[in-house]
Amino acid sequence: MDKIVIEGGKPLQGEISISGAKNAALPLITATLLTQGKHIIHNVPDLRDTRTMLALLETFGVHWERDGATLTINTENIAGFEASYDLVKTMRASVLVLGPLLSRMGRARVSMPGGCAIGARPIDYHLQGFKKMGVELDLDEGYVDAQVADGLNGCTVYFDIPSVTGTENVMMAAVKAKGTTVIKNAAREPEVGNLVDMLLAMGADIEGRDTDKLVIKGVKKLKPAEITTIPDRIETGTYLIAVGAAGGKVKLKNCNPSHLPSLLEKLREAGLSITETDDTLEVSRTGSLRSIDFKTLPYPGFPTDLQAQTMALMSMANGLSVIAETIFENRFMHVAELKRMGAKIRVDGHSAIVHGNGGLTGARVMATDLRASASLVVAGLAASGVTEISRIYHLERGYEDLVRKLDKLGARIKKIKEEK
Ligand code: EPZ
């Protein structure tokens, strides 16, 4: 397995371009299953997860080709409807094929995703929605076996927690259902809005974009669409935080500052200077870092996907920072690794108290999940000495060209083959 080696302490300078959003591209790709024809999706990042999703669609008979960041996906003839355990266990977002397959084929057999490093990650809201739409669900040998004899019916569902993929899955099932579907307490993440835009371009009838109530009136026919993936707000936030940690001055292009309302406020409170236009962010940090408290919340609150990276930053600030993780039950896997670099962090249930001590020292650390590994990169960029991060396949799931982009900003970073 490859590893990343970083010699810390060098400020970042220059400019880089932000890639398309992983968590937008994945549902956009599965939405192509909803109808026959050639779909075009622009600004798709070339990541382990997007490659996995395309490989899954290939098992259904889908053909696709990539030209730079543009995907052409042909769903003219699809046959299969099973997502195997081997594929789903590597990427839980595979469950996003359930809604489209039920709509197109009336049938889907998808392995239950199982837990992951950050939590149990159940899909009960997804299944509750499908059941209300008339789907018969059996759970056998770890697979969700779903079928609906004479088409999906509209329904009203209420999500106790505004689930992102739950909202996306039920919405995709609803666009050609008989009647109207109302999703109450729907997720409002920008990635959900990007999917609404694609479905509208396909001819769907959806009201309530960016609100917590989506009303989807079933239509008879959809047509293939052309859509552009929104910029990745979590990649954007990760680079902003990296500059906060390592210092320097960086310009991020092709991003969308309006998708990071809470993070920008919190980073300014921590002492970063950030200027924005519609599609760029300029960030610098020259003075000392101030400790901040924050709590992860559904959008537009502080993103859970930036909690680990911000914790790494707070471990270098002056003072105490109290961090509450309200979305996932086990998203502090990065704490043990950061402590190996000298961070002073105490976890108490869903909260972590970070005693910022101004500096970290390089060490050999291990990535445990996608965003935890990003926090180790942030820490390594600022730490004195050398940091070696193993199991970087986690990183490659969600950050396109991370080593190249950081190298371009002057970081002393390289990827090396781990000796057997
Ligand atoms: C999406 O996951 C993202 N993944 C996650 O990003 C992100 O952390 C998460 O939303 C929260 O923003 C994709 O979009 C592919 P949820 P998702 O359903 O949809 C509970 C990354 O690093 N819940 O909004 O799986 C769940 O356990 C990844 O890019 C149920 O109880 O998250 C969690 O506590 C990590 N039952 C909370 O809701 C359900 O049926 C939010 O989960 C569904 C969810």
Helix/strand layout:
Blueprint: E1 2-7, E2 12-17, H1 22-31, E3 38-42, H2 48-58, E4 63-67, E5 70-74, E6 82-83, H3 85-88, H4 98-105, E7 107-111, H5 124-132, E8 136-140, E9 143-147, E10 156-158, H6 164-174, E11 180-184, H7 190-201, E12 205-207, E13 213-217, E14 226-228, H8 233-246, E15 248-253, H9 261-269, E16 273-276, E17 280-285, E18 294-295, H10 307-314, E19 318-324, H11 333-340, E20 345-348, E21 351-357, E22 364-366, H12 370-382, E23 386-390, H13 393-396, H14 402-408, E24 412-417
Parallel strand pairs: 2-15, 3-14, 6-7, 10-11, 18-19, 22-23
Antiparallel strand pairs: 1-23, 1-24, 3-5, 4-5, 7-9, 8-9, 11-13, 12-13, 15-17, 16-17, 19-21, 20-21
The chain binds ligand EPZ.
Ligand EPZ binds at residues 22-23, 26, 93, 119, 121-126, 161, 163-166, 187, 304-305, 327-328, 370-371, 398.
> What structural category do the secondary elements indicate?
alpha/beta
Estimated helix fraction: 25-40%
Query: Beta fraction of the residues?
Result: 25-35%
Number of domain units: 2
Major sheet, described briefly?
A: 4 strands, mixed
Mean pLDDT: 95
